[in-house]
Amino acid sequence: MTNANTAMNLVLQGVGDCKARLERIAALTASDHLTWLGDNAVRCEGFAFSTALCQTIEVAAQAAQLDTTYSIGLHKMSDYKLLAMDMDSTLITIECIDEIADMQGLKAEVAAITEAAMRGELDFAASLTRRVALLAGLDASALARVYEERLRLSPGAERMLKAVRKAGLKTLLVSGGFTYFTERLQQRLGLDYTHANQLEIVDGKLTGKVVGGIVDAEEKKRTVERVCAELGIAPSQAIVMGDGANDLKMMGVSGMSVAFRAKPVVRDQANVALNFVGLDGILPLLT
Predict the structure, then answer these.
(1) What class, spelled out in words, does domain 6-74 have in CATH?
(2) Which of 1, 49, 62, 98 has fewest C-beta within 10 Å?
(3) Span 79-286 CATH architecture
(4) Residue-wise pLDDT tens digits, 100-157
């Protein structure tokens, strides 16, 4: 991560009544400057970092169900101008395509393909084509049922969006999922930009195809870069959140990459990994 004995900051955070756990893990850093960022987060400042200490903290924090984020120096919300988010399993708790497939009695088959694609074991575009093809003939009303009955925002989503909006950041929802859901979330949450795949519907039924090109990893990255260019900012002024392998390219061009409840390949490459706290877990990192 960095050289031994580098002065490092660490934010520890958790959910529920976690102050005693936070204090216990914070003590491992031997930092003489702790800043409490509310009841559920503490920043240990300027402690002597070493790989061995990091490993000790990580094991203890995992056991205590606390998230850890290391940084040299402090980051402020004003350092960023755009928040870009993946949709499925990031902004929302479900994979929409798996729930649509459930209406066709094919959830297990489709979910297995989704999971492999998110772990980076399958080409995303090819896997999406396979999954969408299995939906052919399904009544389009299934989309409304998924949205109304199963789609839920991830914990902390609304608090996070309120805070970033108040700070003047623009918001982008960029998804390998479907416009049916991104458009409704845009209206509901007041998001500035969205980009996703469009399911083809003919005579009220899904054809098993998408209209136009597929929003894969490369297209997600291009979308973030395009929106940054429109806003006149550098990609380094963007925070990008995701959970699957198809999010890595757009996360890679950002100033802060956030892995939310993510696959191991994503957690390993992100600046920030939120495994226990909600999406609003980015807020204590930006104060």
Answers:
(1) alpha beta
(2) 1
(3) 3-Layer(aba) Sandwich (3.40)
(4) 999 999 999 999 999 999 999 999 999 999 999 999 999 999 999 999 999 999 999 9
Q: Where are the domains of the chain?
A: 6-74, 79-286
Residue 178 CB neighbour total at 10 angstroms: 23
Task: Indicate if the pLDDT at residue 1 is higher than 60.
Answer: no
* Sign of the torsion angle spanned by Cα atoms 272, 278, 281, 282: positive
Q: Residue 19: is its pLDDT beyond 60?
A: yes
Q: How far apart are CA 176 and CA 86, in angstroms?
A: 8
Count CB neighbours of 149 within 10 A: 9
d(CA 24, CA 30): 11
Q: Are strands 82-85 and 205-211 parallel, antiparallel or unpaired?
A: unpaired
> What are the catalytic residues?
86, 88
Q: What is the pLDDT of residues 229-279, one digit of tens each?
A: 999 999 999 999 999 999 999 999 999 999 999 999 999 999 999 999 999
User: Tokens 């998230």 appear where?
Assistant: 67
